Fold:
Amino acid sequence: MRTGITVALATAAAALLLALAVGSASANRLSYSEQSFRIVWTRLIFSEAGGGFPINCPVTLEGSFHARTFTKTRDQLSGYITNAVVNNAGCTEGHATILRATLPWHVTFQSFTGTLPNITGVRYDLIGAAFQIEPGLGIVCLASSSVTSPAAGNASREAGGNITSLQPDSSLAIPVTGALCPEAGIFSGSGEVYVQGSSERRVRLTLI
Structure:
């Protein structure tokens, strides 16, 4: 009897390990429900790391994923930002202008939060973003992100799989140049993520 119980327990343990292995192997790729996306900030703030020179503007970014499905590989190209719009009429404490000649900007996968297969978010780097900021008093500054100094954002994923929002990582500063300008600046604020062309539908992220 004892031998039978031991064999049964060993078999159950082996089955559990196999199930875990299969689950882990089957969750090595991310899959998006839509190819294109839109991120809308009612207020996106760009300021120096200490909080000075804050420029607060409504901003919309549009882009597309490089592929609907890809592996979770750090620094892998995930998509592009193909359009960026600043509503300067709604800005406070200054103005900002997108340097459109630098588009498209690259979006790369960095990591995820949570425990597989129930991840709670995905972190992306934004590379090549460039814009001009004018905090007032005739000051004109240029800011840009790069591979060595990227901007980064954390996309929040709800339990149902929808990506709901994107929050910039305000601990990362990107270089700023220009007379009387801060040496670096950070982003802050939470943007809503939608399928491009909609103000209601969300991009759904699943693991396969």
